[in-house]
Amino acid sequence: MFEAAISSLIIISTSISFLFVSLPQKSYFHSLYISNSLSDNESISNHLYILTRRPHIAGSEANAEAAAYVLSTLTSFNIPSHIASYHTALTYPESRSLLLIRPPPDPPINFSLQQETYEGDPYADVASQVQPTFHGYAKSGTAVGPVVYVNYGRVEDYLTLKEMGVNVSGNVALARYGKIYRGDIVENAYAEGATGVLIFTDRKDYGGGGGDAKWFPDEKWMPPSGVQVGSVYNGAGDPTTPGWPSTEDCERLSDEQVVDMGDVPLIPSLPISWADGDAIIRSIDGKVAGDDWQGGKGAPVYRVGPGPGIVNLTYKGKQVISRIENVIGIIEGAEEPDRFVILGNHRDAWTFGAADPNSGTACLLEVAERLYKLQKKGWKPRRTIILCNWDAEEYGLIGSTEWVEENRQMLASRVVAYLNVDVAVAGAGFAAATPQLDELLVQAAKQVLDPDNSSQSIYDSWIRSTNNPLIERLGGGGSDYAAFVQHIGVPAADIAFGGGYPVYHSMYDDFIWMSKFGDPMFERHVAVASLWGLVALKLADDEVLPFNYLTYALELQKSAEDLKGEVLNGGVTLVPLLKSINDLEKAAIKINDERKALMESKGWTSMWKDDRKVRELNDRLMMAERAFTDREGLPGRPWYKHLIYAPSKHNDYGSKSFLG
Predict the structure, then answer these.
(1) Fewer beta carbons within 10 Å, N or C terminal of the chain?
(2) Which listed residue (325, 336, 393, 523) is catalytic?
């Protein structure tokens, strides 16, 4: 009996030894993932072409078809997938008009507000499916009055106007887009007493600078009739269900209650083209604006007004409870299935969405295909990987926010990290993240080749392209990471090549623009998929999570120094804050030492008993970010619960530390 037991143990031991010898290490699969043998730029191009054949705004039939395509593609890779649907309040335009009354003898101009197709435009037959230019959640109404030019509509721009003796109150503000979120442009104008807002994309910023510069389809720049549409909602998630999921029969706030929440605009607004903006600028007299307020080459002199040009702006929108569809795919972890690494990208677009967001969607499907190929070679993730394709992001991060609100408790206890890609490809660039992921992102970037120069890595390209190579932070509300970081406190990263691009949110963000100017060979898409997936694999497979909170402590020390200058004369002491940051630094050093000791002790004799220690260490690393959240949220902004990172009060895209 005893001999039989010994024999059995020998057989089991031999089998385990054989298993560990015969199965490749996780690092082998990670290297294979980023190899040329698994990547496929032709497949990415095909995904993008299919996803962008029609305009697919949230709530539309075309966007539901795009969801079905993503679902079927994930399913074809043997990834169990499903639709998570919500019923959310979205707005669409019913009518709008814009009349400019110029001083005599110039006749009035009744603007067409149309984005024009061009000769040979392959999308001319579906251009009528693009929604008329509008702002999501804009207030319906009419604004009539002299025009005041307010530059980018920032708080500091209004201070400049006051110094010039210009009063915006009772007038219509004309702002050029850039620097801050358009919803804040409208909110700032309202605070200054404006009756309405027009936002134009200045040719200086989006049209190649002016002069002899050509535009799409000849060059990458915004055409004269191009309009950047977008949302002016300053919240996150469905405005009618703040803090709870928008299910079909759920309770909702009334229109009046939504207004009282303070996140929807209180004056009407319209986005307009640079050609229309130019015509209005020419109708404005008054003091000459400063040099940094002026337009590009060949532009008229920019004056601030008011008037004498008078505009009559009318907008009427309709609110509809629309079905939106998140697509969720799940690759279950073999050893820790209750720990999640989540990859997310949104699918809905204001128009065709080739750069924003479907360059990211095509990359998500490429990641899924490569993971499928790894599985066929024997790889299984240690932790569960969840692939999410969000809906209604453009309106206000709605699909991701509703999903997080519905699954808040489970996600807060199980998510290791969230990795976002929105606009995957628009120019040269890298990533933003919560600080404990910095080291991981840098290491991954050193392993992925620069798509524009294969003799160097993405990391090499990044540090050579800037004098101050810093990974940005995720305090802004610019994409779907917001609910994960700012609402439940999950470590996160946002990966992209580039920031803004000229045809942003216009009818010209189509497959032709991407294939001619954005990424003709789709090699940048391949690189984004490589970087995104490699970071995910490290988070899913590494026995001990690759987090470094020492970076976080050093970042907070810098932020505290900045804060010290702001509160210097306010009678506020930062001694407790600085002590807490010092304690965090000591704890970060200690857990790094624990990690090192644990990994050095791993061997045949200790590999089983150490599993509990590894799990406990990982949970501390995973949950540390949650400790930066507060149940009550920020003062006056209860949805934002992260005490370190949140959107700046006057710029939703901007990030500020210690908002509370």
Answers:
(1) N
(2) 393
